[in-house]
Specification:
about 20% strand, 3'-5' exoribonuclease (chains A, B, C, D, E, F), hydrolase (chains A, B, C, D, E, F), HD_domain (chains A, B, C, D, E, F), 2 domains, homohexamer, alpha+beta, two-stranded antiparallel ribbon, Hypothetical protein af1432
């Protein structure tokens, strides 16, 4: 079995066998009424296009596209316009339970155990007990903890991989704490800021469906993670004894306001310095990751500039990288 | 005792006595170190400026401006630049408990009993039981019902008077039902639309402080009525048996989306035809009321156009009214 | 002869015959120099794609696309990617005069006689004689009346069907009158508001070419229905005896301002409460119709949300409809 | 009799007498109930503030502010904060008929006879007879010609003086013809462009009231000069024999589109190269004049930059002028 | 040898031979693994698509697309969808040194010698010696003069042809001088305005690569012609004796500000009347040229309106041109 | 001598003597022709209003307001509307040379020696020699070093105090380095990022006049610190041997792009991940400081929210601070 990224031009005109997720199917037809398909397949390290000529009556290719079957593929390695092109010779569906799905879904490059340890260290910086309890119950307990550590933080653009919320939250926590220290916020402000950073994207465990789907749930589309998260946090706060009312208002405003502007989906503006720091730390984490992953994707092309990265509104210079 | 609006140029150079709320105090000083004050006083029918020369040590004039004392005023009626000007000769504070506050706060011109009856009629058009229960428990029960029937719907601009939420909700309900009927929505859509219309500004009973304050509460500023309302409705729905999940998503999205655009403070867009109707009915009710009350305020001036009404971005033609 | 919407998967692999308008032709070529065509055909109830292999020297397929020939088609019913696909076996052009064109053009679902009766009822609510004369001469007389009752109200998006202006005008009239009643406008205001509502889109009978073309005329593109309508109304008013000058200014401003904002093509803003009501009633009618017709179009797809509806800037939830 | 601009610090502590228009009155009161007034007076060359202490019962000071009485003033020349300040000792109203109003209203610095000659020369460049007739009848005949040669082109900002439309139209004509020549437009295009330039602000003779009022008429506010002008031109064109339909559409579109963008009040965009040239020539004339007149106004201040010129959104550097 | 624009339907089914630049190659593949290519070729007068079936191992077709080989083509003239279609029978690469490249690149229609003479005349209107020296050294000396006279002024849209900077600069100079004369600027202002006009797009000789590439250089993309030009001019000014400091600030501000608004890439706004004139003259030259060249391109189509011209945001009326 | 912030209500009705900068003078007049003045005075710790009744012929009060005389004041402490009010009894001008100006100008709260040490440490993290030389010559050498360490970073809003550039640069450096480390940029990227951070606001030593003026220089207003800084850096880079061209382009683009968007005054967008990090670190430093200093200013007021902070577009919650 080969990993997709191990297949190179050294394999030209040879056959390879690999296991992958089938994540997109486009069926096309020829004049003579025949059908062929452009498949997109993926494992943890790479995506690849796969031609399938003469599509037969394989029902499973017609299934709803959110189903993501696991397939074993035998394919011929060719080349087209200077790029590798695989042509399927045989495809068979594989039982998902027999497969370690981690091998088929891209994942954070950061060490998972290290990330969980860091997460605990940030929690332990909180000195206000009710705020610490809030984080313990919202993040470090099931049924939340596993999802929080596993889900992606976005549908595309940035941190859209396994452990995405976890890595993104750690980045945001780090940036927030550095600003708090530099600007000498007091401990109560720091505690609120850490809590907000932990919770700002928490509701993405409800807004998204589990990987490999990466689809937004109905609840996510209709209500959004900003409302869902604030709603759960407000309910949890009301159950915690001794939670200061002003802390509650500031933390909830921070979650509601973390997109930083009404037109970006926050129903209220950040009304505390903590909330403004959170917003900018969140934007910094997302934007920088989106540029880095985009430049890596486009490393191979011969141009000196990347294509336009839509969420940043510009292309990037590839000179001076290596 | 005189009502403020009964004082006219027929009273020139005479003394009048009236009871009013003191809603604003601006203290100014003269070169010789003396102080005088520009007071704003109000009763149910009108607002009036009141000059107070030689401000003494009346402590209560220095109190936080949100306190709104009730005062009995003896004043001389004068004229300045063609407008009435009252000059205080004597002011004394009156015990609030001895006064019927309704006489001092502007109120809806619609008949209160009639409005409550209409409100029940709209509720009774709902045929889906769990939705009807939602409205009964959120609107027609205490501790909500009295506030819902009493609070203003805005700080300024439109429906910023006693029974404001009630009148505005009735207007929105009426417009929504007419559109639903004209466009032949089915009963389930109608039920959801009526529920949304009932609940869209419900949380203003939390966002505002009680009249005569008309101030936004801390919770209102930090979280906003859109979040607060959706939060309470979601909690209530979860307690109601048999509430359809799709109805819940559509009703909550309707409340979250009723401002119609992210930049107007909705964290998600209206995602159903009901939600879009609600948004436009809400806007229609607010805008039309704000134009009508503004034109009435400016009726007296000699210009053929009003001043610019800031929320509508234009002035209005006063020709052809009478 | 079959109606297009009656053709279903029950007809698979069989031949069907139908009459339709040919509304679009895309000719494509194959490597071997052959040509085929993707045709779009339409009757009153549906649109359908039609493959035509081996396009010969049929001149009429090359004609200007605004000509819309009527064709009789004999086709084989197939399936492609889960959708019906018709493949033409024989196409012949049909004399337009031999056909009832109403069967080939989509039309309002409202009863035509009922609509005309309603239109008269709204006119009869006007109590100011010169205003009533204005409506009689601009709407209820030829050469206007037939066009007013027949033309579509838009090129796409909403009310873009036979009787479109008529249905849209009735919706706007209804919404306007409800608001006027609720907000207790006086009779003179109601008269002006009804007149504006009648006339706001009147000039679309000049801006558009007759169905089935649905094309904007040169005059329409260069001058727009807002100017053209106001121009004709102003000329008509000057011919009517006793037309009040203030009524004239308000009605003309209402027509000029009915798009509600400069950036939407109104050269002046609405300067009366009537004009603002008209603008919002117009928007309500257009937006709601566009959502409803779009959701109906997309009823069949298996997704829980529609595609993005461009004029509304969002997709719509399909849950909870049936 | 002195002209206002001839009064300088050389006159300090002396009395001066002058005739001026009274264009603004602000009455203020003192604690003791007395009244004083800040008057603004103007003659052809300058504006000046004038203090009037102890305002008595002069009725004419209370009149509607659009009346603009002519007054003869005897005043004491003082200084305040480094600026001249006049204090009225005596004011008497003067019969308007006894005064040459030209001396009291600012006027174009260009020679009037020269301007009229240039206007004829531009007309005579038109070689298409019906277009030339259009200009002759709309501009060079009464009741239009005198107003066209006299009215200001704006309420403020630019060309807001006697002969303003005339001077502005000549500037626009000149810029248009230079562009047309440089870019080698054909004669028919040149004829249309000259016609548009003549007519684009023509309706300001209806939109404004006559000087010295400089007020916008009710018709102007409700309908705007863009609609009014296009309406009159369209009616005139229909009376002219042999007027080419395409010329008519382009000229009307040019007038409707001369603000260049919907958000600037044009209901349609410029749809011909002539219309785009007209828009930019119009903007160039207006903007450059507004900067020059503003810099001249602010010449005296000691700052190296002017204040912010609101319509241009910036301040201007005064270095390097002399 | 044929020029491309000389090939018409009169040549149908015949073979033609021509020399052209190969400016784009799109390789496509067929099901059977074969390859074909859509080539774009160009000479001074026209662009043309060229089909190449059965692409072999011609390495030079795979080269970086910025290389622009010169090719001699033997092709069959066909027709497809009413348009000419050339199918290559033989292609061979030609040595660039053997070819007069002017014949393969589009060029200004203005006479080159005339343009250079005009350029000198504008320079000679400058009466301030250091400013004249600045223009002499920046424009009329090598290594700048040849590039200034040869480079295009844009990548697309307007003046994107040989001698583009030269023609565009002359247009801008002409418009600037007419405005300066009309508005009676003083000689020092005129001198600065002429200098700015000469220099505003000067740095496009660095921002662009030489024709036929028409590509933006790395330096151009990273720094932009606004910064690069101002930087070089500032350095040059510091070397010139007696250059007035205020002139320097105004000229540099004019270059920095010539896009007229921050959002169009000027880091500072125009702060002098000269700078505002320059900005508008620049926009006028660019916009008018873009409309004229676009309308010429679309002359042949049968529609009465052009397509939408993206930089102007609208389509154009083709009536009344001939 | 008292410091201004030491004067409290404990001093009521007593006389105090202090030395301060006179930073604003507003002269007003009374009806009787007398003059009084509202003065604003400042020392390092506070600003204070000061009434001066009966302004005599003190010439120095009329001087250009940028002169900022040092004054010794003897004043009576009073109270007005609950706030301290000082009334001058005697004012005399003091020779600036006899005063330690540091005591009269607000200054960074960070330790100055510590800041300079940190600055060196950041420089020493650079490992690319030519980049390090650039920083040494642009920052650590005179005539730049003293200004870089002394000037404010803004005219208002944030870091508008002595050592403002220094403190702001250190904040930006810190945030940049944390992001670079977290996201594992390579050493060359880190070196460029540190260089950009050092240089991004460098040109404010030219854009501003020295404290206490805090005025923008003519060069600053006409050219802006973005151009001026990039210009000097580009000239310096050209003098440095071995400076990599790609590093130069990225560093210059980073300085040009550090405002992050065209509409915020950057003529090009950030085209590298380093440049985007710099932009966001810059914004974070400025915004957070502006909120903190604004909240501190408004600490005393009795409201639960601050006024609106104009650059952030919102007010801030004062609950939960202490």
């Amino acid at each position: 079995m080969r990993e997709l990224k191990s297949i190179t031009k050294d394999d030209l005109n040879q056959e390879v066998t690999f296991i992958a997720l089938l994540i997109d199917v486009k069926i096309k037809s020829t004049k003579t009424g025949g059908k062929y398909a452009d498949l997109t397949v993926q494992d943890a390290g790479s995506k690849q296009l796969l031609k399938l000529w003469d599509v037969a009556e394989e029902d499973w290719l017609q299934r709803p596209k959110d189903d993501f079957p696991v397939i074993e593929v035998n394919a011929l390695v060719g080349e087209y316009q200077g790029k590798l092109q695989l042509t399927a010779k045989n495809i068979r569906q594989v039982d998902k339970d027999s497969i370690d799905m981690k091998k088929l879904v891209p994942s954070s490059k950061w060490n998972f155990d290290q990330m969980r340890q860091w997460l605990e260290e940030f929690r332990d910086r909180i000195q206000t007990d009710p705020i610490k309890s809030l984080i313990n119950e919202m993040v470090f307990q099931e049924p939340y903890y596993e999802k929080f550590c596993t889900y992606p933080a976005a549908k595309s653009v940035h941190h859209n991989f396994r452990h995405g919320i976890l890595q993104h939250t750690l980045e945001v926590l780090k940036y927030c704490v550095v600003v708090a220290t530099t600007k000498r916020l007091n401990q109560r402000q720091v505690d609120r800021l850490i809590a907000m950073a932990f919770l700002h994207d928490w509701a993405k465990i409800i807004e998204y469906e589990p990987l490999p789907s990466n689809k937004i749930s109905d609840e996510g589309k209709m209500l959004g993670h900003i409302f869902i998260g604030s709603h759960h946090v407000m309910n949890k706060i009301e159950l915690l004894e001794g939670f200061d009312r002003e802390d509650a208002l500031i933390i909830l405003n921070g979650i509601l306001g973390h997109h930083g502007a009404l037109e970006w989906g926050s129903p209220v503006l950040p009304k505390s310095v903590e909330a403004q720091i959170l917003h900018q730390a969140d934007k910094l984490s997302g934007d920088v990751e989106s540029i880095l992953s985009f430049m890596q994707e486009q490393e191979e092309s011969r141009e000196t500039f990347t294509d336009r990265l839509w969420n940043m509104g510009t292309d990037y210079y590839k000179g001076g990288i290596s």
